[in-house]
Amino acid sequence: MWKNVVRALHGYALWETVKIKYRIKYPKAVLALAGENARLDRAALAYLDFYVKRKFAKEAVVLVKDRKTAKRVKRRIGGKCASFSIRICICGPARMEKLYDAYCFYKFYDNIVFTYDSRPEDNRLGMLLEERLVGVGEAVCLGLFGLRQAPEGKG
Length: 155
Prior knowledge:
Helices cover 49% and strands 13% of the residues. It is an alpha/beta fold. It has a four-stranded parallel β-sheet, sandwiched between helices. α2 (38-46) packs across α7. The longest helix has 20 residues, at 2-21. The model has no long low-confidence stretch (mean pLDDT 85).
């Protein structure tokens, strides 16, 4: 147990560093792409504009694990989001996991979501993805972004 607490504290200190480095404050939305499920990450990027509108944010920060993913995100997003600016930041896999551990321990920022679907066990996103009648886009909108419904004609 102490190991988890120390890891969470380290993750929170890391969050403070990331917050200062990338100037994360309200109203800014943060999407952390875990890289566990490529379809899930693509759907999260496709519906990012709806999440930013829901949070009344003016900017979005997308945290990724490596340069390869950052290039993919840049190609995927392109110039689609004209209503707000997007910044892509490389965080690294170990740092991303520590941030998520800290977030699971203590919800330090309301406008951040992680695309982990396998942990923790009661992960709402993971539960929705296991349902046969719910598609990936709907799971992202309902389970990850907390929208009331999935917008039509996307993803």
